[in-house]
Structures are given as C-alpha cells and as structure tokens.
Amino acid sequence: MKTFLFLLFTLVAFPIAASAQNNVEPPLITVTGQAEVRVPPDEVVFTLAVENVDRDMVVASKRTDDSVRQILAIARKNNVKPEDVQTSHISVQPKYNTDDLPYESRDKVKRVLVGYEVSKTIAIRLREISRFDDLLADVLKAGITRLSNLEFRDSQIRKHRDEARRMAIRAAQEKARLLAGEIGQSIGPAYSITEDSGVDYARSMNQNVTTTTGASSDSDSATAPGTLSVTAQVTVRFRLM
Fold first, then answer.
1. Strands annotated E in 108-219
2. What is the reported pTM?
C-alpha cells in the first residue's frame, strides 16, 4: 500500500514540477517605443448656442427658432451637408432678476420674473476649412449667443493613428537592438506587445490630439488652425539571444 501511495505522489508531483519549469520566462529585454504624427486638420466642428429671453414664452421660442433657421441656411450656403448639422440641447426655463447675483446676495433682492429663456444648441461639421472665416462671420450675424466650442479635426484620424503605432513599434525594436548590442547580445522574436492604455485615443474625437498654433496656409485667412498631434506608445518584450 505504501509503494502505491509513493508512486501516486510521484506521478502527481511530476506534472506540477514540469509545469513550473515551463512557466519560467526566457531572458527578456523590455523597451517602450513612442511616436508622434503631426497632420493639418481637414475639418472643423462649430458648437453654437442660441438663447432668447421674453416674458412671453412663445415669442422667445419664435426668436430662437428664427435664428436657428438662419444658421441652417448659412450652413447650406457653405456646402454643409444635412447630416453634418445637428440641433440638440433644447431648453426652456424661467429667468429671474436675481439669477446673475452672487448666491449670498439673492435674499436681499426681491425676486422678479424677467421672462422665459428658450435656448438651442447647433453643431455644424464643416469639411471645407477654407470656408471657415465666411461661415463664422455669417453665424455671428445670425444672432448666436455664444460659440461654446470650436474643434479642429482630422477625418483620417484612424489612418494617422495606425501610422503612429507602426512608428512606435519600430522605435521599440531599434531601441532594443541598440541596448542588447551594447552588452554583446541580440534580440529574437517579440515575447509580448502591449499598447499603452494611458495614451488617450478618444478624447472628444481628439484622439490624444492637440491643436498647436501655426502659420496659416491661406494668407488671407484670420485663422491659423495649426496641426494635430496623434501619438502612440507601445511596450515590447523581446527575447535576448
């Protein structure tokens, strides 16, 4: 019986020991590669707000709608397709004379209804940046209350992101070869590849994209959209040979 138990223990322990040996990592070198691709934007998104206040809610709504219709007509005049225009964030709320006062001062003033504020937000995607100045000038005349956001974009962001990834992996490989060569070794196949999740690829379509001021390509334009920066970072573990 003792002999049987010993053989059973040996048969169970052997696969565990073999598995542990198989989990031992080979000699590795770990490097990080980074890359940046800079491209000029080829489109811009306007986010416009229209607000009107009147004691008659119907009047305030009509004025807001009239301004929105003017903006939509301006968009069509500048070759903006219907699918590139979106109306959102429709709001109706009462406005009081105390709304703009500091919170601690409101109790000292009698609260009086000024009217009703009717507001709408319109987003316009302009694919022809050469029309930027004309479109902006026209919408400002149409009665917009504020330009809440202006975002330059690249419609081929996926293409440039992939190029940045290719450059980052090549940079990692070159770095690994250099470091390994300094100690008289070389690199073998990649053991693992990890894309750095800390690189933000989807920040409000900026994709880790930032706008930098640069010279305008059009000398008659008052706007310099600069360039967009698309970055990538990878960590690669190569076998040491």
1. 113-126, 146-153, 187-195, 211-212
2. 0.65
